Structures are given as C-alpha cells and as structure tokens.
Amino acid sequence: MSQPLTTIKSFTSTKPPQLCTYLCLIILCIIGFYSLHHPHQNPTPKPQTALHFHSLFLSSASNSTISSYLRALTLHPHLAGTKPSLDTILYVQTHFQNLNLNTHKVSYKTLLSYPRHSSVTTHFSNGTTLDMPLNEPGVASLDVVQPYHAYSPSGSVKAKVVYVNFGTEEDYRKVSSMGVNVSGCVVVVKKGEFLSRGGVVKVAEAKGAIGVLLYAEEDDGLRGGGIERGTVMRGVGDPLSPGWAGVEGGERLDLEDNEVLKRFPKIPSLPLSLENADVILGSLGGPMVPPEWRGKAQRVGPGPSMVNLTYQGENKMVSIQNVFAVIKGLEEPDRYVLLGNHRDAWTYGAVDPNSGTAALLDIARRYALLMRGGWNPRRTIILCSWDAEEFGMIGSTEWVEQNLVNLGAKAVAYLNVDCAVQGPGFFAGATPQLDNLLVEVTKKVEDPDSQGATVYEKWETTDRLINIQRLSGVDSDFAPFLQHAGVPSVDIYYGRDFPVYHTAFDSYDWMTKHADPFFRRHVTVAGVWGLLGLRLADDSILPFKYLSYADQLQGYKDFLSNLLDESISLNPLTTSIQELVSAAIKVENEAKRLRKQETKGDFVALKIRALNDRLMLAERGFLDADGLQGRQWFKHLVYGPPRDYESKLSFFPGIADAIFQSIGMGRRDGQAEVQHEIWRVARAIQRAASALQGELT
Ligand SMILES: *[C@@H]1O[C@H](CO)[C@@H](O)[C@H](O)[C@H]1NC(C)=O
Ligand SMILES: *[C@@H]1O[C@H](CO)[C@@H](O)[C@H](O)[C@H]1NC(C)=O
Ligand SMILES: *[C@@H]1O[C@H](CO)[C@@H](O)[C@H](O)[C@H]1NC(C)=O
Ligand SMILES: *[C@@H]1O[C@H](CO)[C@@H](O)[C@H](O)[C@H]1NC(C)=O
C-alpha cells in the first residue's frame, strides 16, 4: 500500500494564491536548490517529497484558468482538417510553450470526409412535398458544418420509408415478422445505445435498405433542435493506412482497395432532426409498431410516404496534427505515463472534447508550477492533444501505430479524458490493475457537488458499490492504446449522455448554463486525472494490483460458465487465472519487501526497476500477435469490441465472436470454434501471469 495522503481540497476560487502557497513555493525552491547542490545525500526526491508536490498539485487548482482555456478553445467550430482547427492547434502548442514545457507536433496525412450538399425531401401520399433542410434553429454561422455522416457515400435515393426502431437485428426480425421487407426502402432509425452510427448503417445495408435517416430522441427537452453529426466509418484510424501510420510520403492504399472499401458504408445516410423524424413517422401506414418500441411512431410502413435522400460529400487527404508536451522523467526517462485528450470537434466542442482539453491545459499549468518548485517526475509524463478523433480515433491511432515498439516497451499507462464534463456524477473506466489507484486518488479529491465530501464518497453512495467500467468500446482514444498496444488505460468523465452531443449547441454557453456553471466539475476531473498521472509517474513501485485483474477475469469465467453448455470446458481459464493469482501474490510480497529496503541504494533501485517492468509488461501478455479473427488490428483478447453488437459479452471479444459464428455452424464445429478461442484467451492470461512472474520456464 502506498502512504496515505490526507484529503486535500482540490477546489479554490479565483482568489489570488494564498500566502501559504507562496511559502510552500519558497520552501520547495530551497529543497530543490538543496538537492541540486547535494547530489550525494539526496540523489532522488524521497517519497515524502513527491507527496508534498502531489499536495501542491491539488491545492493549485483554479476554475478561472480552466474556464478561460475552454472559452478560447470554443470561440469557433474547429472540425479536424479545417482552418479554424489550426487555431486550436496553435493555442495548445503556445500554451505548452509558454509554460516552458518541451513541446512538439506530429502530423499525418489522412483521409477525412466533409459534406458538400445534402437534402431530404418527403413526398406524402396526399401529393404534398416537404423539404426537410438539415438546419439547427438559430444557427446562422457558416462555420458550423451542416449535419452529416462522415464517410457516407455520395448518392441520391428515393424510396418508401420503413421505421425500424433502433435498427438492431431484433428490430428487423420484428419488422419482418409483420410481413414488411425493407429491401429497396429508406429506413428511419432511432439512435440507441446498442449500435454505433456505423453499425446502424451496416445492418441496414445488410437487410437491403438503400438509405438511412438517423435521429436522436429527446428525453429532457434540452437538445433544442440539435442534429447529431458523426462518422459512419468502420474500424479505427486512417482508412488508407490500416495498421501503419499515415505519414507524409508513406504507403497508402488505393481508394478502390478492398481493405479500404470494407471500411465505408455502401448506402448513403444522413442525420435527421427529431421534429422531421416525427413528421415522417407520423405519415406512415402499414402495420402498427410493436408496443415495446414505445415513442411516438404509430406504424412501420413501408410508405406510403417516400423520401428523397440526397447526399454529396467529399473525401480528401488533409493534414492532421497531434500536439505533445513532454516532461522528462529524472530517474526513469524511458518510462512513459501518457495523458491524452482529443482536440478536434464537430462544432464548438465545449463538452466534446474541449472540457477535457481545458483540464489537460490546466494540468500542464500545474505540473509546470511544480517544476518551478523543483519537482521532476521520476518517469516521463507526456501530455497528448489528439486530432481527428471524431472521424475514427485517427490522430491517436496513427501515432500509436507509428510508435508501437517504443510504447510496447516503455509505456506504463495511458490516461484518457474525452468529454470531461457532461453533467453531474463521476464515471470511470479502467483496466482492472488500475482500479485500486483510481479509488485511492478519488479519495484525495473533493467532490464538486457536495461540500466536504470526496469524489470517492459521493461515487460510493451514488453507485452503492464503486462501479468501474471496462474499456471494450472503441469510443475514444484509449482504444488504440489498450486494444492495439496493450497499455493499461483509464478513462474518466463527469456526467453522461449529454443532450447536445455532436450538435451546434455544444458550446461554452451551454456548458456554463447546464453542465458546469462554476467549472467545479472541470476542476475535479483535472484533479483526479492529474493526480493519477503524478502517482503513476512518481511512485517508486508502480501502483498496479493484478489481483484485481485476476478477480475480474474470474468473474468473466463465471459469467461464461452460465452462458455456455457443459460440453465446452472452461478449465483452461481456471488454470491460467490461478497462475495469474499466484504471480500477483508473489509480486505483492516482493513489493512489500522492496518498499522496506527502498533507501538501500542502487542494487535495490535496480530490483525495483525490474519489478516495475514486470508490472508494466503484464498487460501486454493479453495481446495476441494474430489478433481477433478477421479483425487483426484488435490484438487484446480480454478487452475489445465484439463483432456482434448484441453479444452478451463485453469482454473476451474473440470468444464472443466465436459464439456468434457458431450459431450458423454445426454443433461440433461451433463448439470447436468456441473452445479454440477459450484456449487462446487462457494462453493470453498465462502470458500475462508469466510476464508478471518474470521467470522463464
Ligand atoms: C425482400 O425482398 C428482396 C428483394 O425483393 C428479396 O431478395 C428478399 O429475399 C426479401 N426478404 C425477405 C425476408 O422476404
Ligand atoms: C399531407 O400529409 C402530410 C403528412 O401527413 C401533412 O403534414 C400535410 O399537411 C398534408 N397536406 C395536405 C395539403 O393535406
Ligand atoms: C432527389 O433530390 C435531388 C436533389 O434535390 C434531385 O436532384 C433528384 O432529382 C431527386 N430525385 C428524384 C428521383 O426525384
Ligand atoms: C469559480 O468559483 C467561484 C467560487 O465558487 C465562483 O464565484 C466563480 O464564479 C467561479 N469562476 C468561474 C469562471 O466560473
């Protein structure tokens, strides 16, 4: 266990720094000066000193700086690859530079997708025609990109409309059971939690639909007529450089290459406002919708109303840029702790993603403050500002692909924040060895919404049990780090499902009116995020608990044993999880011993380094060189998206795929397929256990 910190208020007002802050700084300067001139007595900051700096980090929070960063970042819409996005690149870069942080940019040439023209016209059975422009009320600025689906093919289709609820397989089965065939029709789909935008279009295409109109329901009246933009590309990263970095002058696939074509939908799609969706759905005939679909729609169709959906887009090669600030580690410069957030936005991006960017910039400010007080992290900290996430995690993915070996050998953890503040309530996802650290850190940071309580206390009472999600989704930049490179990852945010998601109303104004009027939640996210970074960078022994990982895997195994019939053996999993448990216990004991001897010189320092390497590399064991079958980019066998979105498994994606595939196979073949994937996962767990244990067989 690491030494307990006392709870420190993370929140201060706009008042100037207090006297004690100055005193602290002076004392820290003296300590820094002393250690500079007495290298023998004090070669490295003692844990006590690091602890002191961590307290200083928490007490140097400021809502006014964060709000000013957010204001500056959200002055104009800044879609990736457009001119105004260059201003935000410059803003982040200048901020880092002004803090004297070592700053650089890395650019890629990637294929992005923009709209040129779109129209939706509905032809009713009474002969009237209604144009349904994709306008959001009160949005006059031409800088705001019109609502569209990036990478939708251009095309014009006119056909009868069928309503298919969320557009899941189950929904199509229901439609089909009513004798309605969507083949040749335009489907109207309600955005649900089960399917991604690209997933909706993919299923519709498979059912024979020729166009898709997607709308988002309004549950709280706060959307304000906003229309949700988004990508419909499949997969992760630049479509023309799948698996490698899209550097200037590098290899690029042809647009007609099958690898490229399979990433794009074949039928056009557009988003639709709720208001227009209601008009279209209200005009449908045909059978009544199943009662469980709820909502305003009465009938399924097809028609009699017809829709003319016309979309013309332009896919073009543009330059995107990631911006980095690097704080070199004093003792272990070749070990990396990465904090990342994307910068590009569909519109103004106050929530998505610049609430996170503002927090990142404030962490930079506060880390720089610690450095001025004499602090240097033990390990290297890298602050990452990604580009083109909205198009499919492109900036982060290209960078991870380009730096795969160095990250594999040296990255300790990746800490992601995307939409930092969406509303009330703390949410977190993590790989399980980081659960414990997450809990420890939330015990040090004050809750923004209840006086005198920590984030942890509020989180615990809200969720009853602390609920840490897992990172199997591909909805933010942790995906390449964890699912491709096997880097332990965290993702945190306040609030969820905010109503102005991907609309023109995701603005600074909305943030101050609805999500975080006094920027307290921003301060809290920056506190948790920044302190996680400090602990991972400064703790002499990495704060990873692999017993939590083993526990989680045991839970997954139990879940599988209820799901699968007895002909399939889970013994391989049982054995490998047991190996992980033994290795984890051994490591805990070793860490305890080493902690006691920590001050005993270089020999112990090397032992600690070796132990940390095992802690760091264990996660890589879950990677498989061959990756998931048919989706080789996904290398992680514990966390990744299942191919079948209706899968009951949100872990072991390879096993999930095999279960899905086995449906169409003979019983024996299907079982063999599932059993094989179970073996693969078991071997992955064994690799992790053996990396942690650290001995050759
Ligand atoms: C729907 O119609 C298409 C084209 O007419 C046909 O090929 C397909 O088999 C039909 N599907 C069902 C489920 O009837
Ligand atoms: C035609 O039908 C549509 C949809 O039901 C309705 O909105 C419109 O008012 C109707 N027009 C006329 C002239 O009846
Ligand atoms: C559909 O609308 C587009 C754009 O207004 C138009 O060019 C096209 O002719 C229309 N298609 C049909 C079949 O009416
Ligand atoms: C910062 O917090 C203080 C105290 O709650 C508040 O008065 C002030 O308005 C906040 N500043 C901003 C920019 O929200």
From TrEMBL:
An MF annotation (GO) of this entry: metal ion binding
Cofactor(s) required for function per UniProt: Zn(2+)
Transmembrane domains' residue ranges: 19-36
A Pfam cross-reference name: PA
UniProtKB keywords: Glycoprotein, Hydrolase, Membrane, Metal-binding, Metalloprotease, Protease, Signal-anchor, Transmembrane, Transmembrane helix, Zinc
Annotated Peptidase M28 domain residues: 322-511
Subcellular compartments: Endoplasmic reticulum membrane
Topology class, membrane: Single-pass type II membrane protein
First-level EC class: hydrolase
InterPro entries for this protein: PA_dom_sf, PA_domain, Peptidase_M28, Peptidase_M28B, TFR-like_dimer_dom, TFR-like_dimer_dom_sf
GO cellular component: endoplasmic reticulum membrane
EC annotation from Swiss-Prot or TrEMBL: 3.4.17.21
GO terms of biological process kind: proteolysis; regulation of meristem growth
Domain Transferrin receptor-like dimerisation, chain residue ranges per copy: 568-693
Catalytic activity: Release of an unsubstituted, C-terminal glutamyl residue, typically from Ac-Asp-Glu or folylpoly-gamma-glutamates
Annotated PA domain residues: 157-223
Family assignment from sequence similarity: Belongs to the peptidase M28 family. M28B subfamily.
Protein name: glutamate carboxypeptidase II
Organism in which the protein naturally occurs: Cephalotus follicularis (Albany pitcher plant)
Lineage: Eukaryota, Viridiplantae, Streptophyta, Embryophyta, Tracheophyta
